[in-house]
Amino acid sequence: MILNKLGNTGIEVSRLCFGSLTMGPFQRDLTPAQGAELFECAFSHGVNFVDTAEIYGTYPHVREAARLKPDLVVCSKSYAYDRQGAEQSLKKALDGIGRDYIDVFLMHEQESEHTIRGHREALEYYLEMKRKGYIRAVGLSTHYVACMDGALKHPELEVLFPLINKKGFGIADGTADEMLERIRSASALGRGIIAMKPLGGGHLIGEREEALDYILSLDDCIDTIAIGMQSIDEVEYNCARFSGEAPDPELGDRLRQTKRRLLVQEWCEGCGVCVGACHNHALSIQNGRAVVDPDKCALCSYCARVCPQFTIKII
Ligand code: SF4
Ligand code: SF4
Fold this sequence. Notes:
Blueprint: E1 3-5, E2 12-14, E3 16-19, H1 32-44, E4 49-51, H2 59-68, E5 73-78, H3 83-97, E6 102-110, H4 113-118, H5 120-131, E7 135-142, H6 145-152, E8 159-162, H7 176-188, E9 192-196, H8 208-216, E10 224-228, H9 232-242, H10 249-257, E11 262-264, H11 273-277, E12 283-286, E13 289-292, H12 302-306, E14 312-314
Parallel strand pairs: 3-4, 3-10, 4-5, 5-6, 6-7, 7-8, 8-9, 9-10
Antiparallel strand pairs: 1-2, 11-14, 12-13
The structure holds iron/sulfur cluster (SF4) (2 copies).
One iron/sulfur cluster binds at residues 262, 277-278, 280, 282-283, 292, 297-303.
């Protein structure tokens, strides 16, 4: 497994970052012990970087990972916008993963220069905690091209975690090429780049090979790529691909045969836009949230393309 410098942060990370959202309560709901088996497999192939977030509910899993690998690099994120919220979030992260520092702490899902400004108080707190040694690098995650433009104006945001995949699936305000242009500019300035959603939230699973070829071809400007993994097969497959090796063909076959389902995540706002996009009438709004009828769902992803919140995944 290749290790890369995360921009100018001084932190070294594996090219493959283990995204932990998929093992948490919103998706597979694995126990921390089950999650630890997946982490252990990834670590045996040289992965040294795990991504989590306050909202994922996976701090107990990451705690197990940190126990297995004391030099593990950990990234987490928070929606806090003021000092008090930021203080609570950082404490929750450190207590949750059982450490007195965290490597990367980010403002979660920022949208533009305006939201960066709106979270300034939280950001100032994180920068203060960085000076005191509790955080090694500060930054933001985003699905927005406009946010990358905003982040480029703030050199204190050392790590950027943008959404990018070959079809631009999930980029809220632009194309893959537009996002890539900002990623290249940020990388040239020494920002650490963690790419998220190379498989488009599961919607590119049918084109896994091509989607991975695309993201792995961007080594010039992406330091590490976060992928959610929920089985040993997925870990083995991705570790081989990220190490430049051909995965065992049987692994690829098993992954293709894995039964998938549509998942509407907790933060669905019940706007109903997706319902009109489903020609199979598989979606309805119930109790303020979109609900899928799995017997009618053809996993075509049309609904996910129109969801303004990017809350619909295939897992
Ligand atoms: S479009 Fe997205 S946010 Fe709106 S109801 Fe559907 S899943 Fe929920
Ligand atoms: S994936 Fe396709 S069939 Fe399934 S709910 Fe969405 S639009 Fe309907």
